[in-house]
Amino acid sequence: MFPQGVLGKPSLADPDKAVPSVEKFMDYMVQLHNDILERFPAGKVPPIEQMTQRDPKLVAEILKGPTNGGKHLYVLGFPP
Predict the structure, then answer these.
(1) What confidence score (pLDDT) does residue 44 get?
(2) 28-51, pLDDT tens digit by residue?
């Protein structure tokens, strides 16, 4: 339908046309990064019940760790 992904006139292509949209995207990524760090600073873990739909008992055992009487991370095979 569109050979080699060309739409319109390739002779009118100019990389400077992409600069505003790339800058806007990068500003969004920086803002997203800062929002995540503000909500969950280094060392603070998000609430686990909001991060998975697995059995809460299994997740608690995995978070406990194998050296503390829990389970190892590798018990989470696919499919659950």
Answers:
(1) 83
(2) 999 999 999 998 898 887 888 888
pTM > 0.70: yes or no: no
Under a CB-based contact definition with an 8 Å cutoff, are residues 67 and 73 in contact? no
- Rounded CA-CA distance 21/52 in Å is 34
* Residue count of the chain: 80
pLDDT at 29: 98
| 22: its two tokens | 């790339």
What string of DSSP letters covers the chain?
--GGG--S-GGG--GGGGHHHHHHHHHHHHHHHHHHHHHS-TTPPPPGGGT--S-HHHHHHHHH-GGGTS--GGG--S--
Strands (E) located in 14-69:
none
CA 25/CA 22 separation, integer angstroms = 5
